[in-house]
What we know:
Blueprint: H1 2-47, H2 50-66, H3 70-87, H4 90-106, H5 110-124, H6 130-146, H7 150-166, H8 170-179
Helix pairs in contact: 1-2, 2-3, 3-4, 4-5, 4-6, 5-6, 6-7, 6-8, 7-8
Amino acid sequence: xxxxxxxxxxxxxxxxxxxxxxxxxxxxxxxxxxxxxxxxxxxxxxxxxxxxxxxxxxxxxxxxxxxxxxxxxxxxxxxxxxxxxxxxxxxxxxxxxxxxxxxxxxxxxxxxxxxxxxxxxxxxxxxxxxxxxxxxxxxxxxxxxxxxxxxxxxxxxxxxxxxxxxxxxxxxxxxxxxxx
Length: 180
């Protein structure tokens, strides 16, 4: 019996060590990605390349969110939001508003997330691009799940999963499936 307990404890310790290594590897990769994106930001700013800067900031925002730096990600997006409203496209504006809404959901500021989604719908109406529709469905579903309302999440996601899969958007469709 003692041998079984020892074996179980050793297996738990090995599993915990593996998980710890995996977490540290992910943290290291995120730190490296952040450093590279910050360096790219300087290059795009120096070159005056607004489109490149927009893409780098979008990726940097994702990395910051994964690191739990929600305030910095929000500030970065707010700055981009002003620039996009002045000279960007509707699709870029929609992506910025979706990212901001998703941060609000992650912080459990659900009322604010709803306001951001309403602002998106008010400013843009119906943007036809499938990536925007998919992003909107994901954020709405996450908001519904965070609000303990699984039925609306299913209603929003089910029709989009196959549409995204058929369009070759496998990462997004799998993210949707994971929420179902």
